[in-house]
């Protein structure tokens, strides 16, 4: 899944580059849109007593992005276990060179009604793996 992101002044730090923590926000947007594209509503999961929470994040910052850049965020599922989903995400500049800005992995755990890890339903696993 691909998502375009324009960098606004509010995204940058005093040096004019994207503030490092904002990449986590972009990754979150990418995962949310990934789910939506596959017919999975995060609020719908919550209504069923299920939700995903972040267990682990790893990010490599490789090149700065600046005000008014257009970035392309790519999101894919690389692993699904009984209770977790691992996403790989990469952000590239739309600069004709596809300069890699940041890449990372995010592990989400499914929580059930009691706030404890829960089995991911098979239909949800199928939706997550849909291309």
Protein architecture, described:
The chain is of the alpha+beta class and 131 residues long. It has a single domain, classed as Thiol Ester Dehydrase, Chain A (Roll), CATH 3.10.129. It is built from 3 helices and 5 strands; from the N terminus they run βααββββα. The protein is elongated, with a radius of gyration of 16 Å.
Globular, elongated, flat, extended or rod-shaped: what is the shape? elongated
Name of the CATH architecture: Roll
User: Major beta sheet, specifics?
Assistant: 5 strands, antiparallel
Query: What is the chain-wise order of helices and strands?
Result: EHHEEEEH
Q: Work out the strand percent.
A: 35-45%
Number of distinct beta strands: 5
Strand order of the largest sheet: 1-3-4-5-2
How much helix is in the residues?
A: 10-25%
CATH class call: Alpha Beta
Supply the CATH superfamily name.
Answer: Hotdog Thioesterase
Number of helices: 3
Provide mean pLDDT, rounded.
Answer: 96
Class by alpha and beta content: alpha+beta
Count of domain modules? 1
């Amino acid at each position: 899944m691909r998502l375009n992101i324009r960098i606004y002044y509010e995204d940058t730090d005093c040096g004019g580059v994207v503030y490092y923590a904002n990449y986590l926000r972009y990754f979150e947007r990418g995962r949310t849109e990934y789910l939506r594209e596959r017919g999975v509503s995060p609020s719908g999961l919550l209504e069923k007593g299920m939700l995903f929470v972040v267990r682990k994040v790893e990010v490599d910052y490789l090149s700065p992005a600046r005000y008014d850049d257009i970035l392309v965020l790519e999101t894919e599922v690389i692993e699904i276990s009984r209770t977790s989903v691992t996403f790989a995400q990469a952000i590239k500049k739309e600069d004709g060179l596809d300069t890699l800005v940041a890449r990372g992995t995010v592990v989400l755990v499914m929580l059930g009604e009691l706030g404890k890890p829960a089995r991911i339903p098979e239909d949800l696993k199928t939706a997550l793996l849909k291309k």
